[in-house]
Amino acid sequence: MKREIAERFSPFGEADCESEVKLLQGDYSDYFFYHTRFNAQSLDRDTYLIIGRRGSGKTALGQFFSFQQMLPQAIAIDVDEPVVFERVLEAMTVALADAREIAIPRLAKVWDFVLWSVIFRELQDQDPQIRAACIFGDRSGKISSFIRHVINGLLNRVMETETDLVDQLAAIFEDSRIQAGKEAVFRVARRKPVIVAVDTLENYGLTSTPVLWATAALIQCGSEFNRDFAHRGVHIKIFAMAEIFPYLRESIILNPLKCIRNEIYLHWRPKDLMRLVSWRFSNYLRAIGQLAPVSSPINWDQNQDVLEEMWKPYFGADITNGLGRKEETFPYVLRHTQMRPRQLIVLCNGIALEAKRSGTFPRFSPETVVKAVNRVEVALAEEVINSYSSVYPKVGRILEALSGLPMIFKGNELDKRASHTASEWQGDYSPLAFRQLVAELGVVGRVRYFNAAQGIAAVDFEYSTERRLPLLVSDLCAIHPMFYRQLNVQLNQNLVVYPFPDHEEYQDLHRPLLLEA
Q1: Most confidently modeled of 13-17, 140-144, 365-369?
Q2: Among 47, 80, 402, 441, which has the minimal tally of Cβ within 10 Å of its Cβ?
């Protein structure tokens, strides 16, 4: 990173990948952090479905496809701006007016047609037969505009010929130009693998049936596309929102066992998150000439090296939290996030801002860390709430029912609070629905270990799992630390809540618990 760029950059990077790409342009590939397992996993030939919550790094991973070296000379096609063409598909779904079992397979064929149309346009200069396969033209400009043009062309042909949509698609794919174009693409892909990355909507409601069908159809299409073409060098990678994925799997996708396989969940490990923010901070400090000698060079594949040579020299080893308890700094910071890169980046930037105001930057005193966490955690909580605003209309008002709860409480308290939210629900209200809502958002988790004498609780939250986390009336529950200020939680217990799974990758973060047990 050049100094003039660093001076416009936040110390730990920006809150969204798009801003970083815009600022860094061609240098983004140098800033990207390569030392995570998701990079290799996402490029595996059998992987076509990548699932993550907002801020988990889906956009950055999509950018990675364009400069990765695991598939040499690959051609990456980024199908972005999903709103435009999903609206078109929504209109098509309404027009179909069929049952789900009929509409979704039809829409899957439309997706197949769309994907090949995009591939033909993007590779048209590679072979004359590919150019000839652009039967609806090769309109320049954004891919989203091109897709809208192609689908309109398809619908016009259906109306002109008075044929069924599926029959028209079958006729198009039997066209000799299309068949020759596909074979030409496969020849190109032997030398230059093709990666098509498709993003989905960031926020949509459960009542938007056409869009849910269109998304389910995309996943079905991706499964079939991957099965038929990945071994020939043409890959598809679909990024799905984890906030909506449980509903798709449970109620919308026709055959989950067939359509959902080898999926990747963007569940970040603590060591990866620490190395990510440390890598970004290292780049920034080097650019402005403030990187300490102890912090260069570092073996970024060694978690302990990064902790000792990059994290601790700037953040310190431990802090005293707001309740007067001593904690290691990294677990303290991390437990005020839901283990997502964006949240940790925003939190660390908040710490850096406080340090600049107090004149200690680039080193952060314990007081600075605690003050910044208290200030920023409200914004992080609001971002999570916003990401569910279409799934659960009035979700912010519904969550107000949790205000004033203690840090730890019995699950039956949720049912008592749920009754106060009945008037805010758009749709079927029930205590079970309320418990499901607070679990999905990661606001309330289930206590796995609790020792009042030690003042320690280890808690499981749904965002760290691949399935739902049911909260029963008999469970001991806990509020996530990130929501304490948002929900005015009672902090009158000398208690530290560790919102980390019971997994070997989290053992270092559970060390205080293990030492005191």
Answers
A1: 365-369
A2: 80
**Considering 339, 367, 385, which residue would you say is the last residue of a domain?**
385
For the entire predicted model, the pTM comes to 0.91
- Helical axes 82-96 vs 100-122, angle rounded to 10°: 140
CA neighbor of 270 nearest in space, from 18, 95, 20, 505: 505
User: Which alpha helices (DSSP H) does 73-175 contain, by range?
Assistant: 82-96, 100-122, 128-132, 143-161, 165-174
Closest CA relative to residue 120, chosen from 77, 165, 170: 77
- With the C-alpha atoms ordered 476, 482, 487, 489, is the resulting torsion angle positive or negative? positive
Give the closest residue to 475 by CA, choosing from 456, 450, 497, 451: 450
CB 166 within 8 A of CB 109: yes
Both tokens of 21, joined, read: 């790409």
Q: What's the total number of domains in the chain?
A: 3
Which residue is it, tokens 């990675």?
A: 64
Mean pLDDT across 67-96: 77
DSSP letter assigned to residue 490? B
Q: pLDDT tens digit string along 223-248?
A: 999 999 999 999 999 999 998 899 89
Domain residue limits at 279: 270-385
∠ CA 323-325-330, rounded to 5°:
110
Same-domain pairing of 358 and 448: no
DSSP letter at 310? I
For residues 193 and 316, membership in a common domain is answered with no
Nearest to 242 by CA among 391, 439, 51: 51
Length of the chain: 517
Radius of gyration (Cα) for the chain, nearest Å? 25
